[in-house]
Design a protein that fits this description.
This protein has 96 residues and is α/β, with parallel strands linked by helices. It has a four-stranded mixed β-sheet with strand order 1-2-3-4. The longest helix is centred in the middle third of the chain and has 13 residues.
């Protein structure tokens, strides 16, 4: 399959228990909060690139996220990083 899968961040990480996870991330610096369509596109691209097991999704958005995506992310372990978190000196989000 010659389909391109434009994914901004792709990394492998150990979780401390010897399991390898694939971290897939999308970065958006748009003029409005990010919604479900961005997440759904990332999932589609992950499948096209054959990333299907032990995937952790992270979305970065300078202007934050809409309520639907925030609720979905909380219920499904999606990591959302907004502009405040990116420039903060506070603790970063927990991945594992």
């Amino acid at each position: 399959d010659d389909t391109d899968a434009d994914i901004d961040i792709v990394a492998k990480a150990y979780d401390g228990n010897g399991h390898i996870h694939t971290i897939l991330g999308e970065c958006k610096f748009s003029r409005r909060p990010v919604g479900m369509s961005v997440f759904n596109t990332l999932v589609s691209r992950a499948k096209a690139a054959k990333f299907t097991e032990n995937v952790i999704y992270i979305i970065f958005s300078a202007l934050g996220f809409d309520d639907e995506l925030m609720e979905y992310a909380e219920d499904n372990g999606i990591i959302l990083v907004d502009g405040e978190i990116m420039i903060s000196n506070d603790d970063p989000p927990v991945i594992f």
